[in-house]
Amino acid sequence: MRTNPHVLEINTHIWFRTLQRNGNGSPQTLADVPQEGLLSIKKLGFDAVWLMGVWLESPASRQIARNDKAINDYLQKVRPGYSREDIMGSQYSIYGYDVHPFLGGNEALLKLKKRLNDMGIALILDFAGNHLSVDHPLTLSEPEIFVRSQGEPQDKTLFFQTKNGDWLAHGKDPYFPPWTDTAQINHFNPKARKFLTDSLLKISKLCDGLRCDMVMLMLNKVFKDAWGRFVSEPAPQEEFWPQAIAEVKANAPLFVFSAEVYWGLEWEVQESGFDYTYDKILYDRLLMSSPQDILGHLNAEHLYQKRSIRFISNHDEQTPSTAFGVEKSKAAAAVMSTISGMKLFTIPQLWGVKERFPIQYITKGFEVNRDIFNFYNKLLAIVNDPCFHGGQVALKRIRPVSDDDQTSANIMAWAWTQFTTCKIVAINYSNAPARCLLPIDKVPQSAMLPITEEFTQQVLRVPTDEAKKTGLRLELKPYECKIFTSEFC
After folding, report:
1. What DSSP element (H or E) covers 360?
2. Whether this model's pTM surpasses 0.90
């Protein structure tokens, strides 16, 4: 993958069923996905696709989801007349790390992977190492690898009883209720660690990288705080992830590990061997904070920035159109797309979908917002330029146009440079017009400085004496983004 790669998250079951309904050869397995669909992904400049939810479905999780009142009440509100048959088990209640038969199994996935790789696109899959499904065969054959209660527990919401009579804990984030379709793995148990490592080695032969779910829950200190009172094994001297990642990369050096991680543990997880980590801080600041707070975050250490996953959409968040509003979501997309790091996009994001559906619901289609769709087509074409992947980025200091106009505080700007190419990004991250003076560091000797604005393809010719004296004067509408190309920054 390129530096600062672009990744498209695809809900595999929705995508595959949509391809089947739309004709185009009606693929029977992932191996038969029409070439035109893959070419459209390539044309948009994606370096990788993350096929979310390819693994074996848990029958118990499916039943739990279909009976879940919250899921059914929500779907009745946004999709009246929905069918319960369109609700499947959670893709993170893992029944087994083999590809779902409906998708064609492991062999079909490998054929799709080869087709993607031949086009220069990497394949990323999921790994949910914190837990397995409540009905996973290991809950009966090897209950010791899970967190267990010695005897009947007081808190029945936290545990479930297997057919063999063992009381096993549900998987859990300490700040939220337990995931009742999962069984919590005991990360201090040597057999559990071996199972997880063997699973990673197996999966690494099916794809080019993994998005690892809730990675921080597997850190020794986090697991001890959450489950220490229920496990008899002492905390291992070594963390799980450095050893496991090293084993995988010994056989596949270019294999990419990406981590969903929160709580300020991003750098620690990067140091443990992950190539990229979620940047939820940027998401939250784009959603709720000022441009100055956002710029403060973008001033973080360079290597940390390059290894951060930038996003304003994924299956856990509200869709950008709903969370941000349409115009602000475009500005937020321009920010995340033009800074360093891995860029994560979703199909609902690119299509401007309003509703966020539960991941268990296999929707029969999305309504496309043409305005947002066209915006992303332009944006992705612009940021596909090699300068955004092989160049160097630096924040630019802007100035107010006058002492009594301080709206420049709402404008963020940075520049990418590669050889003789310069890309200048300027974004008004506010709901009011804003103006600024953008310094040009190197001004040519010619009379006019030619600058092309990428969204409109308008060519500006700025007098060089004006550029030397004041810089480029910008007037931006609320949440407007302009990206300029020039030989000079």
Report:
1. none
2. yes
